[in-house]
Amino acid sequence: MPPQAAILVRDSPEASEILVDALETVIKNPLGHAALNLVAKAAGMGEYILTGLEVYMYREPCLMCSMALSHSRIKRLFYLKKCGTDGSCGTRESIHTLPALNHRFQVFYGGFEDRRGEKRKAE
Ligand SMILES: [Zn+2]
Fold first, then answer.
1. Residues, Cβ < 5 Å to ion ligand 1
2. CATH topology of domain 5-109
3. Tens-digit pLDDT profile for residues 23-72
4. 8 Cα: distance to centroid of ligand 1 (angstroms)
5. 119 Cα to the center of ligand 1, angstroms
6. 3-state secondary structure at position 44
7. Please, which pLDDT band fits residue 2 given cuts at 50, 70 and 90?
8. 3-state DSSP call for residue 54?
9. 64 CA to centre of ligand 1 in angstroms
10. Distance between CA atoms of residues 51 and 48, nearest Å
């Protein structure tokens, strides 16, 4: 299985700009998940709150990463592969829609080519 990766993107009608990318580093640190590394890198670059930004990931994020994405206030998450063991954005849990949280975000999975469509929107 390829390492988990995450990319932070600012999307606009004119262009999409990659702001930050991150890989998982769990061999060195149990908290080294790609989404957590991405949020930390973005914060280090002055992007403390990720309002309006999009995150792209290879696999569906776990519970811890999903909560980090919610707290970071991303706009949308896209991922390619569902994760049956701990996927928390549509498979095992749906953190992105939890009413108890004060921020929710849209989730799309299965492909990036039709990312503006609603067909692949996770439940
Ligand atoms: Zn994670």
1. 33, 62, 64-65
2. Cytidine Deaminase; domain 2 (3.40.140)
3. 999 998 999 999 999 999 999 998 889 999 999 999 999 999 999 999 99
4. 15
5. 25
6. helix
7. confident
8. strand
9. 5
10. 9
Instruction: Yes or no: say if 87 and 55 are a contact pair by the CB < 8 Å rule.
Output: no
For 73, how many CA atoms within 13 A lie in the half-sphere containing its CB?
Answer: 8
In 3D space, the residue among 64, 93, 65 whose CA is nearest the CA of residue 77 turns out to be 65
Tell the burial category of 18 from Cβ atoms under 10 Å away from its Cβ (0-12, 13-18, 19+).
Answer: exposed
Find tokens 């849209």 and name the residue: 106
- For 30, the token pair is 């149990």
Residue 88 Cα to ligand 1 midpoint, Å, equals 9
What pTM was computed for the model? 0.88
Cβ-contact 45, 29 below 8 angstroms: no
CA–centroid distance, residue 81 to ligand 1 (Å): 14
Question: How far away, in angstroms, is 61 Cα from ligand 1 center?
Answer: 5
